[in-house]
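User: Show me a protein chain along with its predicted structure.
Assistant: Here is one chain, sequence first, then structure tokens.
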Amino acid sequence: MIGIFREEVYSPNRVEDDAAILRLTAEALSAEGLDIQLVRPQDLSADATPDMTFAMCEGSDCLKILKSWEARGYPVFNSPRAVENCHRYRMLSLIAGTPIPFPKTLLIRTHEHVNGQFDLSRGVWVKRGDVHSTHPSDVRLIHDRSSLEEALQAFRDRLITQAVLQEHIHGDLVKFYGIPSRKWFRFFYHKPDKVNGHPFSPEKLQRTAETAAARLGLQVFGGDVVVTRDRHYIIDINSWPSFAICREEAADQIASFLLDRYRKWESHQGLQRRLA
């Protein structure tokens, strides 16, 4: 079984945290007797044929290899297609029209002129439209047109062609982690000393997060939700976060999930050999 680290470019300020959860997961699997190899994305070879792969990589070269393994029947978690579904422009198309509570959001070309779709004075988030953040300026909160134009110009300068505009929701920011097949879900306030204390239902939050994750095809996920006085809004969801606040517990749960999937795959392979 192979575990693949996340590319450093996709781990801004979290290189060690991301590596730590992968290593702990590998250690838990090794303790169950599995042979685990951890590799960097740049060292990945398409010629390898691992029985199963657990991967945090997000780059197109790595995902292309993982897709080829998946197409040949080798399980990959999270699926490379689910990782791609976390790209903002894909996420928006998958969530649009569903009951999943999501702030007003608009996907635009970075050369477009934005005219009146948002009340900028109330705050609008400007995010790159493809992958999650690789640079501090990939996500900005702006309050006026000049700041908006500056943010879009910065994207154009970096040859980023799409951007997402999302209304700023005033409320309590809550981070969540989940592994639905293990019935495991954790959440916490991002800044517990700066919350309004808006009440919310943990069960409803879990259902919403798991519904969004299922829509994207994620088995191991994290994300952010803003809780207001009367509802909550999913503002982001991503594949295999660092689980920094509950890393040891998460690693055990991920390993149990992977071990279960591996045993099912191994059993299926044995059945196929007997029928051949």
